Amino acid sequence: MFLTKLAFKNLVRHRNRTLITALIIAFAIFFFILMDSLIGGMTEMSYENIIEYEASHLQVVSHEYREEEDELPLKNLLTVDEQLIGVVKRVAGYQASLAELNFQARLNDGINELPVIGKGVNPDKLLDVFELQDKFVEGSIFSSGEYKAVMGKRLADLLKLKQGDYITLLVKDKNETFNTIDVEISGLLHTGNPKVNSSIVYLPLNIAQQALNVDNQVSKLIVRLENKDLAEISGHLLAENLKTLDNNLEVILWGDLEAVSVAGAKQMGNQMILAIILLIAAIAIINTVILAALERMKEIGMMKAMGLQRKEIIYTFVLESTGIGMLGGLIGLLLGGIGVWIFSKYGIDWGAMIGMDMSAFGMPIIGKMYGVWNLGTFLLVFGFGVFVSLLSSILPAYWAASKDPVEAIYHQ
């Protein structure tokens, strides 16, 4: 008990050193919590933008189409009939479904030409499955059978197009014959997904099927559920049910999509950055604790001269360092909590601040980026700070406690 009291008295007696060391630990913990929150928020926003504007929760495709999906082929398509819709509607959490015909096209405004992804869709179903209703910055969605199209505002700006202008889509039909689709722009979108804004043109499904000569076939059936957490259970159930209908069909979960895999790979890279930050923080903490112990060499000599044993001196120093680690950890948690609250409530717009466009790094994010709460990180980094403080004090305390009292007292 005497040694414990001595350790805590030392914390107060050397308050300036205690506070400086604790602030260094606190800053390391604060910085890690903040970075973890922003990276977690960036990942969550990437997933949400892919689900809400591009892929939704489940997709039904043929096995052969899945293998060549990146090339947007017009073969191995599927026919969406009442029987298939009936099976899909029976999955847990079903909300809506959309038959989508994807194809390669070149967008021509009469002067310039750009490669784009064409999507033939039912307009009402499109708005049921994706959160696009409030994303129109000009005009509105088309009706089935109308020779009209909707595209992203960024794509329109590249070609200096606006609502009401006419465009031509140059396509190859199912038989590799060139064809054109002339449509009027009925609306322009601006979403949080840069791919939708800059490379996709939506047009009525029947117009696209006719131009591409694919009868009533589509590339995939997209299914929206009540929430993404139901995707795994509902997806596996749907896959089992589809086997009785057509053994050639398969179900793709949103988490298995290539775009999500890319975002997940970037998340792994971000975790490596966090690990490096944690390592640097550990080095800073170790360095600070060692310097603090060396500065107190004379004090250690006095303690030995007074009859304290080596293990008692080590115990006192380790306890004192652990106390500093806990103090720094608590300050770091407090500052980290304030930082995460600010970023989760108000967000940060890198584009407005320093002109950084996250989509340039392959992240499907536009506009403000928000932080997320991760209580596991709070506990982890606090425990890490205390553990590193404790561990880093043992060796210098042991080294100092092993010295001769006279030598320690006159240590320079």
UniProtKB/TrEMBL annotation:
Domain of life from the UniProt record: Bacteria
Predominant localisation class: membrane
A GO-annotated cellular component: plasma membrane protein complex
GO biological process: lipoprotein localization to outer membrane
Transmembrane among keywords: yes
Subcellular location: Cell membrane
Pfam families linked: FtsX (PF02687), MacB_PCD (PF12704)
TM annotation in the entry: 20-42, 272-294, 314-342, 348-366, 378-401
Keywords from the named record: Cell membrane, Membrane, Transmembrane, Transmembrane helix
Membrane association type: Multi-pass membrane protein
Keyword Nucleotidyltransferase tagged: no
Record-annotated ABC3 transporter permease C-terminal domain positions: 272-405
MacB-like periplasmic core domain segment(s): 18-230
Family: Belongs to the ABC-4 integral membrane protein family. LolC/E subfamily.
Protein name: FtsX-like permease family protein
Native source species: Iocasia fonsfrigidae
